[in-house]
Amino acid sequence: MKLSTNDLLRAARAERLSEQGRERLLEATLLASAESNVAPTLTPPRSGLWWLKLCIIVGGVSATLGGAAIQPWGTARTKAPHLLQGLHDAAPPEALKENAGPMDAPSATISPQHPSAPTVSVRPAPRKSEAEFLASIRIQLKEGHAAAASHELSSYFAQYPHGQLQLEARVLRVRALQAASNQAQAIEEARALLRTYPSNPYRMELEQIAGPP
Amino acid sequence: MGAALNDHVHLDEQQRTIGAPVALVPATPTRTTNAAALRSFVETHADFVFRVLRRLGLPKDSAEDGAQKVFLIATSKLTSIDPSRHRAFLAGIASNVALHARRTFARRREDLTGDDTLTDRANDDDPEQILLDREARATLDRLLAAMPEDLREVFVLAEIEELTMAEVAEACSIPPGTVASRLRRARAWFEQAARDVRSP
Question: What is the ipTM of this complex?
């Protein structure tokens, strides 16, 4: 077959990134951007425990300066580093991200009035990243485990109510609903996504699922 | 950006439709705006970056990986780049990423000329047309692989991706006059090579 120069150039211009490649690219870029923004978000005291840290520091300083009058805080003189470490352990940087949900920071009950209480050393189980969540959901869907995928999606939305990959997760939810033969809800969710994100990269797929308005 | 507004709407809607717990942390406009802007940026230029990497010699899978590298590098410097220069900026990064990847492949003695899987296309495309395009791209890539490196980069950006002379000059870090002369030579080289292919 004789291909003209124009045929060659036109074919080259028509090439597109695959849908899967596009999804991976979006995920990787958004996550990398989110991670690079961690430092600024750590600056303001976003955790509700900021006052406790302040009290511990003030108590520690007072005790160091011989402030025996503040007896209950005297314990903080020795506990302070551990407590701060405990707080640090209990609230990893991810938990202080803006998109971290209320479930992220485990409730570390630290009472300076009970010096005999063991030093908090709560280290939360390693939290799945957004990309890990979505990757496992994709695998589950691919293997036909719609219920497991749906459960995983619920966990994702609970842990990342303001996640960077909300759109991707909601598209996966549509696919999970379809896989579970819940066509009516899949259509409803697809339409909701199209209303919310009229020009999203998954539009073609969502329009096919949503059907005519 | 309109998408940022949509993100706020979407939070309420998500809680309603998905049943996620009510968030205690309010949405942060800056973050959602940044995410929406970044998503739009990637979506706008993803195909362009992918094609540049492909035509500069990367197979499909490597081009997808390369595109991730390009956008990771680009997003770290994006705020200092005027939107009108985005394509030239991305093309410059893509060119470096492709060069680096090809050197790595060369060190590993891997074959870059193998056939790639068919790139996904819209569902309504004619299968025959898809096959024709595939054959055309394979032919084009064979020709480009034989083209001198300095001409190839200019040819891909100017002739295939239709960047302006100024954009190509910026992407390749060469003067516009050099772009023009290289493009002239590249076109002549390509026409001759295409003629040779058509009439073996």
Answer: 0.72
